[in-house]
Amino acid sequence: MSDFHDRLRQLIKASDYDYKGLSLAIGQGERYISNLLANKSDPGYSSVIRICSALGVTPNQLSGLNDQISLVGQDIDTNIVSAHAERILTSVTREAHRKLSQRGTKPLLDDVLTWWHQHNGLLSNFETLSEHVDLYRAPEPDARLPDPYLIGTQSLAAVSFGIKTADHLRHLFTTFDKDLSQSVTMAHVQTNKGQPLLSIEEIDVNLPGHSFPLRFVYKRLLLPVRDSGGNRYVLNYSQALE
Fold it and tell me: What domains sit in the chain, N to C, each tagged with a CATH number?
């Protein structure tokens, strides 16, 4: 049986799409599919759904399972189809996380969004992501500075700034340019209203031991989350741009 990426190539070839067209059809950049196939990376949960929808195939077909079902016909129980598709997609997502742990790389933005969506913003089954993200306490609307709560050992802030603790990052915010700190705070205020916030950031930061500002360009995903006790936080997952 061919692997996922071979099946995807075959399905695209049999469709009306080329790689660029399919990438745009599922709301991604024009090289998304090309990069996915070239790097043999794993698409996240939401991308699997959009790819299936665009190509007119079932998750079973994309996963290469033999017990394929059709989503057409009036004699199909849609509840059974939905439950079956959900089981398949859960298996795909679980396998993607397994491969992620094996290869020891950072999660994709799609992985983080998938986790957030599946758990409805609750900080559960968080172990595979926790070392790559930072948590901030949810700010009040008039907050002046971000309030770091937990720093992931492999987060962009920890790796780039050498940060070890939330107190360390909290202190650094007091040394950063006032407009920069205020911009981060307002982004947290906006995220705390309930919706994800994805942006590309370009900042200049004066760090101890450097005589000139260092420039950082990165993708930043902010998510509103809460723990089992109802305490609210803002989750920050950032990736440096190549």
Answer: 4-105 (1.10.260.40), 118-240 (3.30.450.20)
